[in-house]
Amino acid sequence: MALCEKVFAPLLKHNLTVVYHTSVSHYVWRESNTAFQKKNIIPTVKYGGGSVMVWGCFAASGPGRLAVINGTMNSAVYQKILKENVRPSVCDLKLKRTWVLQQDNDPKHTSKSTSEWLKKNKMKTLEWPSQSPDLNPIEMLWHDLKKVVHARKPSNVAELQQFCKDEWAKIPPQCCNRLIASYGKRLIAVVAAKGGPTSY
């Protein structure tokens, strides 16, 4: 259990999909002849739907940073996300030097270049099984985030991204602490199910 309290748990490449409500009118104050400048345009998605890919992390002391991923995810992009978000999150959450990075076995996480990058940057990782959704404590946070973002009814990609960041920042530290504290029960349930699905 002591180890679980030190686990820093990121989530990679998760898509949030919502149905946009395109009947909502938006008004923009602008100067003459600037209608098509980027700052005066609100992006919309045809056919009433869209998604964003985000990376997030948390520890027992609360949520860390949430990053929106643009374009294709590969090892280089993953390393850039880690570089820009892990250490700042560790500082924000006031974690001690004994923190451990938890990631799954996605090829981008275990590639030679990522392994070398993690070693060079002295980031210790937690050994992790290949198929383990019931073991990842961040899945509950992800479920809750989808629910609250959907309830806010974003009407375009920009709003969806902003709502994700807003709601992630609102996650109470007590919620994160409960997820880490219940990790022992999660492990027992997975062992009892012989690696099969559990209620988590």
Describe the structure.
With 200 residues, the chain is α+β, with helices and mostly antiparallel strands. It has a single domain, classed as Ribonuclease H-like superfamily/Ribonuclease H (Nucleotidyltransferase, domain 5), CATH 3.30.420.10. It contains 8 helices and 4 strands, in the order H-E-E-E-H-E-H-H-H-H-H-H. It has helices spanning 2-6, 75-92, 107-110, 112-120, 138-151, 157-169, 173-181, 183-192; strands at 7-19, 49-59, 62-69, 100-101. Strands 3-2-1-4 form a 4-stranded mixed sheet. Strand 2 (49-59) and strand 3 (62-69) form a beta hairpin. The protein is globular. It starts with a helix and ends in an 8-residue tail after the last helix. Residues 1-13, 17-25 and 44-48 have low confidence and may be disordered. One of its GO terms (molecular function) is nucleic acid binding. Residues 49-160 form the Tc1-like transposase DDE domain. This is Tc1-like transposase DDE domain-containing protein. InterPro entries: RNaseH_sf, Tc1-like_DDE_dom, Transposase_5. Pfam families: DDE_3 (PF13358).
- CATH H-tier superfamily: Ribonuclease H-like superfamily/Ribonuclease H
Tally the structural domains: 1
Name the helix and strand elements from N-terminus to C-terminus, one letter apiece: HEEEHEHHHHHH
Main sheet makeup: 4 strands, mixed
- Content-based structural category: alpha+beta
**Oligomer type:** single chain
CATH third-tier fold name: Nucleotidyltransferase, domain 5
Please give the radius of gyration in angstroms: 19 Å
Count of alpha and pi helical runs: 8
First-to-last CA distance: 18 Å
